[in-house]
Specification:
The complex is a heterodimer of chains A (212) and B (802). Chain A has 212 residues and is mainly α. Chain A is built from 8 helices and 4 strands. Chain A is elongated. Among the domains of chain B are: 27-225, Cytochrome c oxidase-like, subunit I domain (Cytochrome C Oxidase, Chain A, Up-down Bundle), CATH 1.20.210.10; 590-771, Cytochrome c-like domain (Cytochrome Bc1 Complex, Chain D, domain 2, Orthogonal Bundle).
């Protein structure tokens, strides 16, 4: 790109018959790197196709997803398998780690109606002592799984049973914070949650189980 | 060696500008520059309009209240107006100016018909005006860059093919230059392919074909003949190639004429022109499915889209090389010449965008970039950087020639250049940052295997500062454009009282003696005869023959485009396993269909996708990934291409009807930090129940099964819609315990209001797959067994299955 007439000029071959409104054309060969990159991208195509659509090995997006999903499930819960019962909710009521898990689930699916802190927006305040559809702690996972109030509270069938336990435990843990809410008192005041059982630390550390 | 015409032939039959020996009389002709002046004016006017609407949109995101409650200018309604204005009005008029100016000179012939030229000009402007008069009112097909409804589609076909196409090809027929220059090849590809794309992506059944609609809105309404995954395939075959053949090939043609003229240098390589033209035309067509990576489109189609996009890299760069290397020896002129500066930056942006495009089409990169502002940054680098700079470079070169006076101000042109350059850089960089930020936040998984950013609105709030910076970039670019307009206006003011119209002379082609090209002898020795033939063929001497046969050239171009299209589209449509059906997926109810049409009309798809990809973070956030069988009744498909708001594919049943009503009224109350505008008119405007039977009839014509509404039972559809609407409002009142009241406290019966239809549609999204099989539905004998291997189980639970 020198400003003096470039040396390449001498190899430029002007096409004598090409003159269109004064525009002329050289017939320079295509640059070598251009040729080879073009050929490279063409050769890449069948290699890529065979790698991901191999007749002998399943490697498509679905199988990749299923593998990733299985790994993620293991990362989430290890071998932990819980039934969404009141006892299980109670068991994790004071477990910081799993409450945190429940909090993230809550933030993913519940905050739009119940508010970021559970204070209630279009759905009831979860931080006071009054409940519409909950009489005992076992009713929380039940409402989460089955829904309530004509679908205003949907049935969260897409949640993993463990997730239902943890999000229920998180919801139960919100009780008593009594955050200011635009919603009035709804439902009836119910008895306090029973005393949680003593913690068994080993069960709260699935990482240990995964590595072991 | 590479050209068959020898030096001795050149002296006897020159095709250059010198006087030609001839057997017949010289013909006198002049060029029609008045039409070019018109197109230049339209380019500038629509450019300002398109950019201005862009800035309004850019502001509406951080300021969702900016529309002031006016439904016609919400983001959803206005965004198609912005894209259409910039693509078809600004870039469109620019390429027409380029084609009308250069074709006449490259063919040594006036445009075949001044009448057609003017019909083309005024017809096109009328189409643009009609776009501006329909899109804000929600008259849209919702297919990106093909939003305009059926009557305008017909007008586009007539103006493009009937006026522009005929005029252009007849000019080639009556030309006085034997061979077609490379710019003309690109114009041919443009005209033919855009016509094919436009027609086949816009096949529809209008409601009016089914009876007389009661409202203007319904009169304009149509449904595309394709549905779901097939509609997506057609749309992005169109959408991607609109970029190829509306924003790339004509601008390459523009470059091939105006760049060597402005630089006074020969084109770098004729051979490269041939190679990159044909490879570009053939390969581009395949690349469309890269817009559908990780969607429910069959995976082999996505793979084809990706590998062809990568193959497209060098053909695209062929154009960039031929542009930049043409400037060898004149680089010292570039800093002082605004025209060359615009061209150099434009071509550089072309090179950047055509590297970025193949990169974004790599599936794993696309997993991050898709649905984000990265794509928005990419397209603006193309539209403002490449198309805009090439258009303005051309206009600055044309201005003194068209207005026959000096350019008003070189300094202003330079200022325009620097403002535009700064503007596009600020724009693109802010959008890259926004896209990467949001993409990474969406996919982020924390140590516990959960979403790192569980609340979608967190990811929206994170990029608001980038929206601000984007506005600054847009303002800089618009500011430059306004200075450019002023400069051209002042140049025009200084025009002579009467334009000079030079008269040229040249013989008719038939009167010019001509020796047909001969294949060169191969230099190879000691090889097989076939080796020599290949050697001769590879000199591309035969291409010179094609260049003097415009009809053959056009047919070959058409074949390249059509064959590539058919090879991809035919298997996509006929292989049944591409779209496995799901037994429990049923057509929408009449009310849901009416609600769906409101969703389309409001342009919800501009901000919300309905396509969950098979990525862990995505299924954790939204639910099971979408399957092709779920959208088989979606005329048109609503998968979307951007997530300014969250995906809605599994919105059905997630929230109560009361939530939706309140959310449409006050999105920020329901979701703090949401940037969705309020939709208060949905609670005021009535559902068009009268047209519901027509909508059902049009769907029936497309093969959607509504056995209960056949023939005389069709009017029942309106009654059923009313019943369902009442039910939804009743549910609303049961949940809230009271009737709906508007902001003034006045009680409003929502059961005939649009909001109810829209909610009916939203509550249906993504739920059919989990529905219990309908035991009462009649099962035709034998059918289920034959289909069984293609039927996806009613409720596959990917999360549970693992």
């Amino acid at each position: 790109m020198s400003d003096t007439l470039p040396k390449t000029e001498q190899t430029d071959e002007l096409l004598s018959s090409h003159n269109y409104d004064g525009i002329q054309e050289y017939d320079n060969p295509t640059p070598g790197w251009w040729n080879w990159l073009f050929i490279g991208t063409i050769v890449f195509a069948p290699v890529y196709v065979l790698w991901f659509h191999s007749p002998v090995r399943e490697n498509n997006l679905q199988t990749q997803f299923q593998t990733a999903m299985a790994e993620n499930l293991k990362l989430q819960f290890g071998d932990l398998k819980l039934e969404p019962t009141g006892d299980n909710v109670l068991k994790y009521l004071n477990d910081e780690k799993w409450l945190d898990f429940g909090k993230t689930t809550f933030a993913t699916h519940c905050v739009q109606c119940h508010g970021r802190e559970g204070e209630g927006v279009s759905a009831p305040n979860l931080t006071d002592d009054s409940y519409k559809n909950v009489k005992t702690i076992a009713d929380i996972p039940k409402v989460v799984s089955e829904g309530a109030n004509n679908g205003a509270m949907p049935a969260w069938t897409k949640l993993h049973p463990n997730e239902i336990v943890f999000v229920s435990a998180y919801v139960a843990s919100l009780r008593g914070k009594n955050l200011p809410s635009t919603r009035g008192v709804e439902g009836d005041e119910i008895d306090p949650w029973p005393e949680p059982p003593p913690r068994e630390p080993s069960e709260t550390k699935p990482e240990a189980e995964v590595s072991g | 060696m590479h050209d068959s015409t020898t030096a001795s032939e050149a002296t006897t039959a020159p095709h250059g500008s010198g006087p030609a020996p001839t057997d017949g009389p010289l013909e006198s002709f002049s060029y029609d520059d008045a039409i070019v002046r018109k197109f230049v004016t339209a380019t500038l006017v629509w450019g300002v309009v398109g950019f201005l609407v862009g800035i309004v949109l850019a502001l509406e995101l951080p300021f969702p209240w900016l529309n002031g409650g006016i439904e016609w200018i919400t983001f959803g309604r206005l965004r198609p107006l912005h894209t259409n204005a910039v693509i078809f009005a600004f870039a469109g008029n620019a390429i027409f100016a380029a084609i009308y100016y250069s074709t006449q000179r490259l063919c040594k012939a006036r445009m075949w018909s001044d009448t057609l030229s003017n019909l083309h000009f005024w017809g096109w402007q009328l189409i643009i005006v009609s776009a501006a008069l329909t899109l804000p009112f929600g008259i849209t097909q919702s297919k990106e860059y093909a939003e305009l409804e059926w009557p305008i589609d017909i007008a586009i076909a007539v103006v493009w093919a009937g006026f522009f196409g005929v005029n252009f090809f007849m000019t080639l027929i009556v030309r006085r230059e034997r061979h077609l220059y490379v710019a003309i090849w690109f114009y041919i590809a443009t005209i033919v392919t855009v016509a094919v794309l436009h027609i086949f992506n816009n096949l529809w059944v209008p409601l009016v074909a089914m009876g007389t609609p009661g409202t203007a809105l319904a009169w304009f309404k149509s449904y595309p003949i394709y549905a779901g995954a097939q509609d997506a395939m057609m749309q992005w075959w169109y959408g991607h190639n609109a970029v190829a053949f509306f924003l790339t090939t004509p601008f390459l043609g523009l470059m091939y004429y105006f760049l060597p003229k402005a630089a006074g240098r020969p084109i770098f390589s004729y051979r490269l022109s041939i190679l990159h033209f044909w490879s570009l035309v053939f390969i581009y067509i395949w690349a469309g499915p890269h817009h559908l990576h990780y969607t429910a489109t069959a995976e082999w189609l996505q793979t084809l889209g990706m590998v062809f996009s990568i193959m497209l890299w060098m053909p695209s760069w062929g154009g960039m090389i031929n542009g930049l290397l043409t400037l060898r020896g004149v680089w010292h002129k570039v800093p002082g010449d605004p025209v060359l500066k615009f061209f150099v930056v434009g071509i550089t942006f072309y090179g950047m965008s055509t590297f970025e495009g193949p990169m974004l089409s790599v599936k794993s990169v696309n997993a991050l970039s898709h649905y984000t502002d990265w794509t928005i940054g990419h397209v603006h680098a193309g539209a403002l950087g490449w198309n805009g700079f090439m258009a303005f470079g051309m206009i600055y070169w044309l201005a003194p020639r068209l207005y026959q006076t000096k350019l008003h101000s070189i300094a202003q042109a330079n200022l325009h250049f620097w403002l535009a350059t700064a503007g596009i850089l600020v724009y693109a960089i802010s959008m890259y940052v926004a896209g990467l930020t949001q993409g990474l936040m969406w996919l982020g998984i924390n140590d516990a295997g959960q979403l790192a950013y569980p609340d979608f609105v967190q990811t929206t709030q994170a990029i608001i500062p980038m929206y601000w910076i984007r506005v600054v970039g847009g303002l800089l670019y618009l500011g430059g454009t306004l200075i450019g307009c002023w400069n051209i206006y002042c140049t025009w003011k200084a025009r002579p009282a009467k334009y000079e119209v030079p008269v040229y002379q040249a013989p008719a082609l038939k009167d010019v003696p001509f020796t047909p090209e001969q294949p060169p002898e191969s230099d190879l020795v000691a090889v097989l005869e076939v080796g020599k033939k290949i050697d001769t063929w590879s000199t591309l001497w035969w291409h010179r023959v094609w260049e003097r046969l415009p009809i053959k050239f056009t047919i070959m171009t058409t074949l390249a485009v059509v064959i590539a299209s058919l090879m991809e589209l035919v298997p996509a449509f006929v292989v049944r396993s591409n779209i496995p059906t799901i037994d429990t997926v049923k057509p929408y109810t009449p009310l849901e269909l009416a609600g769906r049409d409101i969703y389309v009309s409001e342009g919800c798809y501009n901000c919300h996708s309905q396509m969950i990809r098979p990525l862990v973070a995505e299924t954790v956030r939204y639910g099971d990934y979408s399957l092709a069988g779920e959208s088989i009744y979606d005329h048109p498909f609503q998968w979307g291409s951007r997530r300014i708001g969250p995906d809605l594919a599994r919105e059905g049943g997630v929230r109560g009807n009361d939530w939706h009503v309140r959310h449409f009224l006050e999105p920020q109350v329901m979701t703090q930090g949401s940037i969705m505008p309020p939709y208060p008119w949905l609670m005021k405007k009535k559902i068009d129940f009268e047209s519901v039977p027509l909508r059902i009839a049009a769907q029936q014509a497309l093969g959607v099964p509504y056995p209960q509404y056949e023939g005389d039972d069709r009017s029942q559809a309106a009654e059923d819609a009313k019943t369902q609407a009442k039910g939804i409002y009743r549910e609303y009142m049961q949940i809230t315990g009271k009737p709906f009241r508007d902001a003034d406290g006045e009680e409003i019966d929502l059961s005939d209001k649009q909001v109810v239809a829209l909610i009916a549609y939203l509550q249906r999204l993504g739920v059919d797959r989990y529905a219990a099989p309908d035991a009462e539905a009649p099962v035709p004998d034998g059918e289920p067994a034959a289909q069984s291997d293609e039927v996806v189980a009613g409720a596959p639970d990917e999360q549970g299955a693992t």
